[in-house]
Amino acid sequence: MNRIPFVAGNWKMNKTVAEARELVARMSAPLSTIPNVEKVICPPFTSLMAVSEALNGTGIGLGAQDLHWEEKGAFTGQVAPNMVKEFCSYVIIGHSERRTYFGETDETVNRKVHAALKAGLTPIVCVGETLGQYESGLTSEVVRRQINAGLAGIDPAIASRIVIAYEPVWAIGTGKASSGENAQGVHSRVIRPALSGLFGESNAQAIRILYGGSVTAANAAEFFAQPDIDGALVGGASLKPEEFIAITKAAVK
Ligand code: PGA
After folding, report:
1. What pLDDT is recorded for position 201?
2. 135 assigned to active site
3. Which of 21, 181, 220, 232 is least buried, going by the fewest C-beta atoms within 10 A?
4. What is the dihedral of CA 12, 214, 62, 186, to 10 degrees?
């Protein structure tokens, strides 16, 4: 299966509008010349309008870091799918920081994935086990549950639009990345079979599964060499233009 590599930068809660413009100006031209990789930048909500203008015509996609599932109404502080869609084609859903600090559950992830797909957005759905779960040998069980519950009820006919990011919590922002081999094992033995169970084998083969957690220019190639790792969700290194450009180049097949 020929899956187009996918590299997304998650800026998390970093950059004012002026800083976001400056960062994009430093990376958009070199990124835009990298062929055959789907490239996405995910700044905070407040910078989406400015960054969408800056990315115009570059071929680089724009994503939000979250959304709410309701279409409108009395939900103070939330942003609706069609509001995200005004600027973005992508949205990160279920990031471990949202699960840990903001009460995100498999059920809210599921509502958000349905809402994102309905709005025409590409959801980047994050899964991954904590350090305690990893050490207790619960990785497969936890990740399988997150996939099955998070993607429940999605129509198989549109499932190939979904992107999955496997991000072991112990690897996020710690400088302790998983090995390529360990991530490949989770992708090929847990995530893709779970996707196949939900959507059928040919859809499962079409879905991109990214690795995330302390990806750098130095270790990116090790991940991209694995047959079931189709790209990366990059946090810290996506704020450094040279690093993010080098990671994206390493994704070219
Ligand atoms: P990191 O973050 O690359 O800084 O580890 C990854 C993520 O949270 O998506």
Report:
1. 98
2. no
3. 181
4. -120
Q: Which of 104, 129, 167, 243 is catalytic?
A: 167
Residue 210: name the closest of 194, 219, 223, 193 by CA: 223
Overall CATH class of domain 6-250: alpha beta
Per-residue pLDDT of 7-38, as tens digits, reads: 999 999 999 999 999 999 999 999 999 999 99
Nearest CA to ligand 1 atom 9: 235
The CB of 234 under 6 Å from ligand 1? The reply is yes
What does the domain layout of the chain look like in residue ranges?
A: 6-250
Q: What pLDDT, in 10s, does the model give residues 148-174? A: 999 999 999 999 999 999 999 999 999
Q: Which residues contact 72 (CB under 8 A, 6 or more apart)?
A: 80
Cβ atoms within 10 Å of 42's Cβ, excluding its own = 27
Q: In this structure, which residue's CA is closest to atom 2 in ligand 1?
A: 235
Query: pTM for the whole thing?
Result: 0.98
